[in-house]
């Protein structure tokens, strides 16, 4: 029986994870669940999955959860705050940790799980964008098993031979081809993008996801963050990564080899596939996802991303090339800009503007040897800069 802690259990990835776990009760036991402040949903999950620990980032929400579950026999121990999330990530009973908190808030607990040598199922790509070197060093030092949940990275992982960590060139890889759906505005005239509403940006044509990643998918910043994530996961520079727009999202990504072979992973766009892959690895088991019907899919289309429509992708490539603190600044500015867009404080093209200006106003520095606290301080500074830019030039 493997104990699993699900960080961010009330979100889109969290729900899909619980769905897969419930299909294999003989193999897994849910030992901990966490959420930000969705008390009702976490309480319901606690009643169903009976974890030994439940944590809420928000202390008031944790208190409400405690009173809701007070009378329940075998009620979980309730923890709160960032410390509570970190405690869950290192729980001795949890062999596997699903890191599915959204944004920079996921860094501390994801890193704690990596340091504790867990099997880390990493959905929280922002951890690697912010602290890639620190994170990968922690994995190497502790012997943690890092398995990518992001569908593209999970696909690439599946298309690479064992031993790829010694270097992609050594295993004959020429390019990683990262597919992108292109989001809801792939075909919109560029001059209409200023009219985009949060509801339109969150209505992804293929995937059903949390709000932040949905907006990131619409700007293609999600693909940009994924380029940086891929660099860390697969030990390469951005020059070995090409982004291809593929609207059907049937091919989740590809690996091109020296001899001309291109390996791809295909399937229905449902996150339960990469989640089941990472839970069962190196075996395979049922995920609940319907088999792919190629005839129903009919055709697979590909195009190059339009740099004028998607400046965020370019900004992320530049940050990846610059290295140092640039990806961290990019991520922080993007989180602030997306939140401001969702609140109606900047328009849709304003997201890229805020990120670009934050990068321009910040001195990019080396992060070699920097610890977690130093990185978090840089993240806070970049957030303050981005907020100031939004106040100075409202979109
Ligand atoms: P979501 O918004 O649906 O859920 C986020 C979860 O994190 C919730 O449980 C929420 O309670 C928790 N959370 C939010 N803020 C928090 C905070 N400050 N402290 C502690 N917990 C907090 O997001 P999602 O779509 O499930 O995405 C989660 C992560 O997975 C993101 O990093 C995203 O980029 C990545 N991801 C998601 C998908 C997808 O299909 N949804 C695909 C690939 C990668
Ligand atoms: Mg993805």
Structure characteristics:
single chain, 395 residues, alpha/beta, Rossmann fold, Rna Polymerase Sigma Factor, Chain: A, seven-stranded parallel β-sheet, four-stranded mixed β-sheet, 11 strands, 15% strand, binds nicotinamide-adenine-dinucleotide, binds magnesium ion
Instruction: Give the overall shape, derived from the CA principal axes.
Output: globular
Task: Figure out the total of helices.
Answer: 16
Our measurement of the CA-to-CA distance between the termini, rounded to an integer number of angstroms, reads 53 Å
- Strand content is 5-15%
Number of strands: 11
- Listing every helix as H and every strand as E from the N terminus to the C terminus, the arrangement reads EHEHEHEHEHEHEHEHHHEEEHHHHHH
Strand order of the largest sheet: 4-3-2-1-5-6-7
Content-based structural category = alpha/beta
- Biggest pleated-sheet summary: 7 strands, parallel
Helix content: 40-55%
Ligands: nicotinamide-adenine-dinucleotide, magnesium ion
What is Rg?
A: 20 Å
The unreliable regions are none
Average of per-residue pLDDT values: 97
**Total individual domains:** 3
């Amino acid at each position: 029986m493997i104990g699993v802690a699900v960080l961010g259990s009330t979100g889109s990835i969290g729900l899909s994870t619980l769905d897969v776990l419930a299909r294999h009760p003989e193999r897994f036991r849910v030992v901990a669940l966490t959420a930000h402040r969705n008390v009702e949903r976490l309480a319901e999950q606690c009643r169903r999955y009976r974890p030994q620990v439940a944590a809420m980032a928000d202390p008031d929400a944790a208190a409400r959860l405690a009173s809701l579950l007070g009378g329940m026999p075998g009620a979980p121990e309730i923890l709160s705050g960032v410390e509570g999330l970190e405690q869950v990530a290192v729980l001795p009973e949890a062999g596997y940790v699903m890191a599915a908190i959204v944004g920079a808030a996921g860094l501390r607990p994801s890193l704690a799980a990596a340091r504790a040598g867990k099997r880390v199922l990493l959905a929280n790509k922002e951890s690697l964008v912010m602290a890639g070197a620190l994170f990968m060093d922690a994995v190497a030092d502790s012997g943690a098993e890092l398995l990518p949940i992001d569908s593209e990275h999970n696909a690439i992982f599946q298309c690479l031979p064992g031993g790829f960590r010694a270097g992609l060139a050594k295993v004959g890889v020429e390019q990683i081809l990262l597919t992108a759906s292109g989001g809801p505005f792939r075909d919109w005239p560029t001059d209409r993008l200023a009219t985009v509403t949060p509801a339109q940006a969150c209505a992804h044509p293929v995937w059903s996801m949390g709000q932040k990643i949905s907006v990131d998918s619409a700007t293609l910043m999600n693909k940009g963050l994924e380029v940086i994530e891929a660099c860390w996961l697969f030990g390469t520079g951005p020059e070995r990564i090409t982004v291809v727009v593929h609207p059907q999202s049937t091919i989740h990504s590809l690996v091109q080899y020296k001899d001309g072979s291109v390996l791809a992973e295909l399937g229905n766009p449902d996150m339960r596939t990469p989640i089941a892959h990472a839970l069962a690895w190196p075996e395979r088991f049922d995920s609940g996802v319907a088999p792919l019907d190629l005839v129903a899919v009919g055709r697979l289309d590909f195009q190059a991303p339009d740099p004028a429509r998607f400046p965020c992708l370019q900004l992320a490539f530049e940050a990846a090339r610059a290295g140092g603190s640039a990806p961290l600044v990019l991520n922080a500015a993007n989180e602030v800009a997306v939140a401001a867009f969702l609140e109606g404080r900047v328009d849709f093209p304003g997201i890229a503007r805020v990120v670009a200006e934050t990068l321009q106003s910040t001195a990019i520095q080396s992060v070699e040897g920097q610890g977690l606290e130093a990185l978090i301080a840089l993240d806070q500074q970049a957030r303050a800069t981005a907020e100031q830019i939004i106040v100075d030039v409202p979109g």
